[in-house]
Design brief:
Layout: E1 31-34, E2 40-53, E3 64-66, E4 77-87, H1 92-95, E5 104-107, E6 116-119, E7 122-126, E8 130-132, H2 146-149, E9 150-152, E10 160-162, H3 164-172, H4 174-177, E11 181-187, E12 190-203, E13 208-220, E14 232-236, E15 242-246, H5 253-260, E16 269-275, H6 282-289, E17 296-299, E18 305-310, E19 315-321, H7 327-336, E20 339-344, H8 352-364, E21 368-373, H9 381-398, E22 404-406, H10 410-422, H11 429-432, E23 436-438, E24 441-446, E25 453-461, E26 473-475, E27 479-481, E28 483-488, E29 498-499, E30 512-513, E31 528-532, H12 559-571, H13 584-587, H14 599-603, H15 613-618, H16 623-633, H17 639-669, E32 673-674, H18 682-685, H19 719-732, E33 743-752, H20 753-760, E34 766-769, E35 777-786, E36 800-804, E37 807-811, E38 814-817, E39 823-827, E40 836-843, E41 850-856, E42 862-873, E43 878-892, E44 896-900, H21 906-911, E45 917-919, E46 924-931, E47 936-941, E48 951-959, H22 978-989
Parallel strand pairs: 2-11, 16-19, 16-20, 20-21, 21-22, 32-43, 39-43
Antiparallel strand pairs: 1-2, 1-8, 2-4, 3-4, 4-7, 5-6, 9-10, 11-12, 12-13, 14-15, 17-18, 18-19, 23-34, 24-25, 25-33, 26-27, 26-34, 28-31, 28-33, 29-30, 35-40, 35-42, 36-37, 36-41, 38-39, 38-40, 41-42, 43-44, 43-48, 44-47, 45-46, 45-48, 46-47
Helix pairs in contact: 7-8, 16-17
GO cellular component, one term: preribosome, small subunit precursor
InterPro entries: AARP2CN, ApaG_domain, ApaG_sf, Bms1/Tsr1, BMS1_TSR1_C, G_Bms1/Tsr1_dom, Hemimethylated_DNA-bd_dom, Hemimethylated_DNA-bd_sf
Domain Bms1-type G: 267-426
Amino acid sequence: MARQLCAQPHPHASPPQLPLRTEVYDSPFQLFLHSVFGYRGIVLFPWQARLYDRDVTSPVPEKSESAAGHGSKEVKGKTHTYYQVLIDARDCPHISQRSQTEAVTFLANHDDSRALYAIPGLDYVSHEDILPYSSTDQVPIQHELFERFLMYDQTKVPPFVARDTLCAWQEKNHPWLELSDVHRETTENIRVTVIPFYMGMREAQNSHVYWWRYCIRLENLDNEVVQLRERHWRIFSLSGTLETVRGRGVVGRVLAEKRNLGSKDGPPHLVVVVPLHAGVATHDALRLLQSDESALVRKDERAEGFVLLCPRFKQRWRFVTAHVGNLHAVLDLAKVADTLLFVLDPLDGWDSTGDYCLSCLFAQGLPSYALAVHGVADVPQKKQTDAKKKLGKAIEKRFPEAKLFPLNTEQESLLLLRHLAAQKQRHLTFRDRRAYLLAQEAEFVPSHDSDLVGTLKVSGFVRGRTLNVNSLVHIVGHGDFQMTQVDAPPDPFSLNPRVAKDQQRKGQDMEIQDDSINGVVEMEEVIKVLMKAAPRRQESLQSEVIPDPMEGEQTWPTEEELKEAEESLKERRKVVKVPKGTSSYQAAWIVDDGEDGSEEEEENNMEDEDLMEEASQVGESSEEEELVEEECETMAVAESTRDDLYDEKLDEDEEQMLEKYTQERLDQMFPDEVDTPRNLPARVRFQKYRGLKSFRTSPWDPKENLPRDYARIFQFQDFSRTRKHVFRQIEKEETEGAAVGWYVTLHICSVPISVMESFRQGLPLVLFSLLPHEQKMSVLNFVVRRHLGNNETVKAKEELIFHCGFRRFRACPLYSQHSSADKHKLERFLRPDAALVVTVYAPITFPPASVLLFKQRSNGMHDLIATGFLLSVDPDRILIKRLVLSGHPFKIFSKTAVVRYMFFNREDVLWFKPVELRTKWGRRGHITEPLGTHGHMKCHFDGQLKSQDTVLLNLYKRVFPKWTYDPHVPEPVPWVRSEQQLPMQEVEME
């Protein structure tokens, strides 16, 4: 089935109010003007069609033919006149952006080919859209078919007669030229007219396929401006099926977005300048970009940047510099930038710091970008050729098919500006569905209760989507907040400013006045209030569910039970051997060899094997940073003392790193294997574990034994359906508020003063509007892969820093295998050879969204650990921790064997008897009976064991992440280039 959109009117046009014409032009070849599109044309044939008009207010003078039904959705079909017309070719270019003039399309041949026959400039016009006129010209309409179809005859009125070609052509193509039904409906002053046409029939695989086309017309009957955003059809068939088809977008919309960016109707083109080498002279590069004599420059006093207004090109840019030493600033600016301008060094291109910055930007998602090299004139003439070849190879590897622009003269800077304005914009999905803003100005108004919290007034240009005052906004790095009001101050960067006579030329700060000022400085500027928040419609800031403790099935303990608990605590006291001089308080913390770990350690799921892990996380860092840090700590003491402390600290750090590395290697060689404790029964130690017949097929209830934190989170019945519904509402419904390109001031309430302090320090202030439910907490799952430049051992539940879409936060994640099964095995380490799923508690974010994982060193630097994307928001994802108990065959028979060292008492053997056994060589079996009292057991297998084989028993337990979400991420210290670390390491080692 083919669909065609044609005769689409201009959304701004409104048809003139003309007196109703009841006469029908039975005689063809009448010259006319179209009342909506305004083109000239000539009538070929009139058609009597059945009009199904759902607009009861529309006047239809023709008589009723038949009733289609009595339901609310069915209307009566009435006979209405439509005309087949030729369009003047001189008027086609003026309506090509508003309509499609190829209204007639049908199958050229009735064979198996898919060739289509199209007639350009042939349209169907309703009777009320005809404005007749007369002309004395013999050829009044310029069309390639006019002289083939018609000839001039002054004795006729109108003075044209049909040739034989026209009659033969119509008789041959009559089935697909005639229209029979017209459907029309008006909604909110938008009238939609659909005309179906039969195109023909083809035979495909012994069946008949009937082809139809549709002419769809949209008319704006109101004076209010309407914008057509997308094409979306729902087609019902007689078989009861529903087909949803989305068009490729509105004709000219991509071009319109490109033209609006940087124009007077759109936001300024935001260009973030990123120098990728420490030797790049950023100030000189920015000065060259300001060299256009006809442009006006408005410098930013707070940050290193400026606004460039070019009335000659009708463009305006805002340039902001992002230094690679500030990781958060680079990533935040890249989230909102229209274009990233990478400035390269002519010799090396980028250094290690710039390469690290590029890795982070590529993982987050690159908008449109351009490459510029500055400082070629400073390179000796003999080395310029070699430097150009070296730089070209590096760029080809990192930026394939990218063009390098020199930036050394004013003419070259002008060419670069033209390229920035003309290049195609790349879209980042996570920001296309949200409104976002980069703050131009900010003002903090303290509240009456406290000076530390108040209202933050942020001014800037709206980008992405329309901003609604009732939605929530997320200030990147600071949290979610509500808005109380949106103002519309004058645009400070208008392309048509009135400049005072005494101001200086370009290169200096210019005071640009508003258009409403005519040489007189007003005392106060009138600021319009666009919207005020409605309390009933405003989104709530509630992020967690307040659990009701009475909803549980467990009853409150009685007084007798409380007394029994107190007595049991008293009976637990026992005498232990402690070192001399130990107090009773200290002795209470000494764990006897026969005791198991505390209940809290068992709940943590990972501490049962590694009790010393917490201490190893505190002082972990790389070797060269440990040496530098140690030097700073020991400078004020004597030389001999410093040497002793140096050796002592070095041994301690190396021991911790070695222990961590050993654990990772043991987990790779003996995955999930643990030793059975000899001083504690295995049935007590592993009481929370269970055996499974098959890890893949055995059932596991996702709602079983949920932790208390699950009562605080939100869960969707069907997250995918909710996500599609939210996105569909964004596309279909028109949001009220500040449109894209408006300069607005947002009043954000209950904001801490730390947000304003960071803005005053020159850090970018970036805001994103939140979609429904995105402020609520849930369980997020990310698919990540280790970054190639990092090989540090990362254990599960170590604190990492997440950059997810427009958010960043800290959390201690769990790792699991990425598979399509309903259960996923827990991984104790972030492995470098496979993609893993990271699970944390975090606010809901609708995918797609990228994620970057960083680990903070002891000196404050952030290392990129892994990159990936958001997989799902699913608390029902089952993470299974596996423990493997191993035993050794003591005596081997044909299909039986005596196994020892798996258990050490008879009761444990009987307890784990139902669990299936397996061996490393592929044998399967089960426990038959215990032998003796020392844990020996008789086992039966499906074959004879080898003497070097190992008997294994798998136990499983579901684990959950810990609630470690922290939205406040410390600012990283400036990056330290690796080239500067090598000499420091060599000096220390000497």
